[in-house]
Amino acid sequence: MLDSKPRLLDTDFPLIKRRRLSTVQVNLGYRCNQSCVHCHVDAGPKRREEMTSATMEQVLGFVERSGTSTLDITGGAPELNAVFRPLVERARALGVQVLDRCNLTILTEPGQQDLAEFLAQNRVDIIASLPCYLDENVDGQRGKGVFEASIRGLRRLNALGYGADDVDATGLRLDLVYNPIDAVLPPPQGALETDYKRELAVRHGVRFNRLLTLANMPVRRFGGWLLSTGRFDDYMQLLRQAHREENLDAVMCRDLISIDWQGYVYDCDFNQMLGLTLGATGGHRPHVSELTDAATLTGADIRVANHCYGCTAGQGSSCGGALA
Ligand code: SF4
Ligand code: SF4
Prior knowledge:
Elements: E1 23-27, H1 53-66, E2 70-74, H2 84-93, E3 97-102, H3 115-121, E4 125-129, H4 135-142, H5 146-159, H6 167-170, E5 174-178, H7 189-204, E6 211-213, H8 220-228, H9 232-241, E7 256-259, E8 265-266, H10 269-274, H11 309-312, E9 317-318, E10 321-322
Parallel strand pairs: 1-2, 1-7, 2-3, 3-4, 4-5, 5-6
Antiparallel strand pairs: 7-8, 9-10
Residues 32, 34-36, 39, 41, 43-44, 75-77, 103, 129, 142 line the site of one iron/sulfur cluster.
């Protein structure tokens, strides 16, 4: 696979600094039951990287001493990791909000039949990928049969109360994530959410809370695909031309750090995939066990590169969807 990293490092992206930390995002490893074309993690069934319980304890230790309010769990398919369930239960016992970045098909995989119930019992917020409401588009990007399995997963979540309008009452939030099928920017989030809600309800009887639109990042598998198809420069130009200065205020790295499966710390998940160390450290690769509290990260420089234009393009993308 061609590597886009050397094309990203020489950048004129503006300098940004971290505010007070509110979210710890933790990547439990790169094993996944899918192998999507756009995957910025290069995850798949053959990946073996997985967080150990010792590292999980170090992550929880930092969550507790930093007073972080949200733990955002990602992968791969994070639910495949043995520490996933203990991590969720321990974080919830600390009163921390937990987000699971779920690919939906994992809910119907062998051995995961009770996963949906586990998530509901622990009041875990679910952020689930579904790049279209049409089956041929989803299967084209994420693999044959993925759409049908995703709908089955959504129905299971709906049956448990996920996706109902009154999230404050149920505590069961279900948000969907849209990313474009091709090397284009996502359409406006509000209009697309209306379409998704109508089409998924009418065609499949499925409901959800919010649709988050994210641009594909030119890193790892998607970056390699752009390079191998000769579209890298055009896509970077598209992102740059769509850059909006006001989106700098809300990119996710302003309030978040990202921890990898070995416990090393980065400014965000994309930087983690590129191996770009925390901006404030001048090349040292900090480990979560070295972080004393959240205050030491406040006001620190964030390590930026050209892929950051993927966060500020158009409406702007963050892990919470469009920014503007
Ligand atoms: S995009 Fe998500 S579901 Fe697809 S391979 Fe990557 S981690 Fe797995
Ligand atoms: S890729 Fe986005 S979240 Fe990561 S450092 Fe750049 S602007 Fe921040």
